[in-house]
Amino acid sequence: MSAVVTVTDLRRSFGDRTVLDHLDLELEPGEIVALLGPNGAGKTTTMRMIAGLLRPDAGSVAIDGVTLTAASGSRLRGRLGFLTEAPGLWDRLSVRENLEIYAGLYAVAAPRKAVDQLIDRLELHLYAASRSAELSKGTKQKVALARALVHDPPVLLLDEPTAGLDPEIAKSVRDLLEERRTAGCALLVSTHNLDEAERMSDRVAVIQQRLLAFDRPEALRRRLSNGRIRIRVAGEASRFLGAARVFDNRATADGSELSMQLVDPETQAPAVVRALVNAGAGIIEAHAERPALEDVYLHFVNVSDERRRS
Predict the structure, then answer these.
(1) Domain made up of 5-221: CATH architecture
(2) What is the pLDDT of residues 63-111, one digit of tens each?
(3) Closest to 76 (Cα-Cα) out of 90, 64, 93
(4) Is the model's pLDDT at 302 over the cut of 90?
(5) Strand partners, 131
(6) Quick one: CA dihedral 145, 76, 198, 24, positive or negative?
(7) pLDDT digits over 221-251, tens only?
(8) Counts of helices then strands in the chain (DSSP H, E)
(9) Reported pTM
(10) Where are the domains of the chain?
């Protein structure tokens, strides 16, 4: 599958401070990529350059294989929907007026119908006639998301889409993003919520000026795996320590759980389970110990910090 967004060797500085340095990134149709990094890592700058709102010092951004330039920018920006961290609505205009103006700016064929559908999907009926200044933070965020979606773009750039939202509204936003992914939309989501990133993203990009890691969450977690597996059996696990210690002479038992260290859990685990079953164990579950995405993220960021200090 060809990338719909391609970021190549992107560089950007503000004065003497380098924000992005040789950043490469790709975004494919029908996937959610979570963009992770500490404050000041360049996440928002990256999104603003992809959206054509900020010019890079060097490098390029391509949308559908076409390089984003001053000449192509107007046409390519219509392929994008951008939700900034601050909703940026017109306070004196109603929710409907805000959305209809943006539908007009994007030359949506049936603007009123498009706005009606989004008001319905995001459950904004009660606020359609309300001025934006009167809305709660969560409702403003939903309206801003509707604005980013009003022209049905194939690419969505979302900067902290669920930050500060209550759980119910945050879930409705995640559900909508899942719908857009299923429809083939490519989504780049900047977030500090690592649990959310792990649950909803297809791939995770960790950046701190440069791209530190870019892969599926499970693949990133596997990189830091310690090789330990845990197997829960029916009854006392100590009865099967002999079978377990064929694979790890330091295997331990705690209640109904066996724990052991393997050189290659991916290939050895099936043989371990077979040996335990042959020894009479009833296997309830077996799983490899994997670090949380938070641990993976901190690992890459800390390694990057050490390299920058050295």
Answers:
(1) 3-Layer(aba) Sandwich (3.40)
(2) 999 999 988 988 888 899 999 877 788 999 999 999 999 999 888 988 8
(3) 64
(4) no
(5) 94
(6) negative
(7) 877 777 889 999 999 999 999 999 999 999 9
(8) 11, 14
(9) 0.82
(10) 5-221, 226-288
Q: What is the spatial order of strands in the sheet that 5-14 belongs to?
A: 17-27, 5-14, 58-63, 66-67
34-72 core/surface letters (b: 16 or more CB in 10 A; e: else): bbbbbeebbbbbbbbbbbbeeebeebebbbeeeebeeee
Three-state SS for 282?
coil
Whether 276 contacts 240, CB under 8 Å: yes
Six token digits for residue 123: 């459950």
User: What amino acid occupies position 178?
Assistant: E
Cβ-based neighbours of 17, under 8 Å, separated by 6 or more: none
Amino acid (1-letter code) at residue 40: G
Q: Pinpoint the alpha helices (H) of 132-223.
A: 137-149, 167-182, 194-200, 217-223
Pairing between β-strand 32-36 and β-strand 203-208 as defined by DSSP bridges: parallel
Q: How many residues does the chain have?
A: 310
Question: What type of residue sits at position 64?
Answer: D
Strand order in the sheet with 228-233: 252-254, 257-261, 228-233, 283-288
Residue with tokens 């909703």: 87
pLDDT at 308: 67
Location of structure tokens 């009660």:
126
What element of type H or E holds 204? Answer: strand 203-208
Closest CA to 268 of 242, 240, 288: 288
Query: What is the CATH number assigned to the segment(s) 226-288?
Result: 3.30.70.2470
